[in-house]
Amino acid sequence: MSIDTLLSQALAYSREKQFDLLEPVLRQILSAEPHHRIASLELARVLILARRFDDAVDVLDPLANDPDSGVDVHRKLALAHSYAGRNSLAVTHYRRVLEFEPDNGQVLHSIANLEQAMGLVEEAAATYRRAIEVKPLWTMPAAVSPPQFRVLLMFAPGAGNTPVDYLINDARFESHIFTALNDFEYDIDLLRSHTDVVVNLVSDADNSRAILGTVEALADRIGRPVINHPRLIANTDRATVSGRLAGTTGCVVPRTRTFSDAQLQQLPGGGGGTTEPQYPLLVRPVGTHGGEDFEKVDDRDQLEAFLSRIGAAHYYVTPFVDYRSEDGYFRKYRFIYVGDEILPYHLAIDEKWKIHHATTPMTNFPWMQDEERDFLADPWRVFGAPQQSALRSIRNAIGLDYFGIDCSLTPEGEIVVFEVNATMLVHGKNEGFPYKNEAVGQIRQAFHSLLERTVRGAY
Fold this sequence. Notes:
Dna Ligase, domain 1, alpha/beta, Serine Threonine Protein Phosphatase 5, Tetratricopeptide repeat, five-stranded mixed sheet, 17 helices, Rossmann fold
């Protein structure tokens, strides 16, 4: 069979998204003509979609140094390296793209995001500024035409932003994302003309303090209804939230306090005073999420070792609450608040106190999956009327339109509050836990409905 015939067959499979049939045909083409550009690019696309990033790189690397290979080779190499976490290599290939397309705002935004992730703060700031100058808005088209409405998403580099890729991808509304920087003159009329509702993504109170005033002023000047208005974010840091929720009926809310490194270094070792934190303590640098730099310390020696290893300027310190269930396992529940709805997102079960769903042994224990499946199908069998009332009290106290809570339950039925904020991740990558898809999809649909109600003025 000729290469032209194979290529026609491959393009037909591609149109029908029959990727299982497409890959063998593309590899047959490449076995006859190893540097066939169209087949290489198409195979790389298929491999990236399958999250086989190294395989995609292997296909494209032989073309990368060919001066006639074109910009698309470097674009896909940048994408594959970026998804694989090789940020420096991704930047290298994105910069090759800029040699062909120096005013490509989307590529400039991608480079800036990677520089930010690499800790190249000054370089990222300069690249973001250049990106905004050439492309003030990055648009994600709606899945329908015309779109039902338009959403303007306010993003700020390094400020701790609400993850929304899953929520806005392939939606019936059109999304326009712009990057907020201090000391930049925005075309407010342009922003206003591209939105029916504004969604503020700048949601980490600690990391966004330097930009929140700018984002708030922009939201007010645009003059459209706002989801998670920036003025509500400042009081959602861990310490302030623990104070706001203290005394909530049916809840255990460990008091979180902020300490400088110097203050912790001088903390007495006995933990016996009435005003000093009592061991065991949970300690983490201010402005961090996840568990990499988050530890339980049982005494002064462990605290000093942690401070020496981390070297941060300020820390959050919280008394440890042993939330182990009666069967000896720890359980962490996550709910997402969307408008007036409280929706289950996951249940993570582990023998360890520091739980992240992705690192639990749940893939190996069907009973754990069954328990999570039952929780997602009917969370109110676990969280009865008193717990529901407590969750609603938390919603009323926080006041945001969209946010999440990580929590557990004591044997007596009290809600142990771990974390409440709008930075929690909701995603649709549920390989290994396909039963999660329905619950996660309900959160996405509720978010879309919230936006639609807001546009209609009914919320």
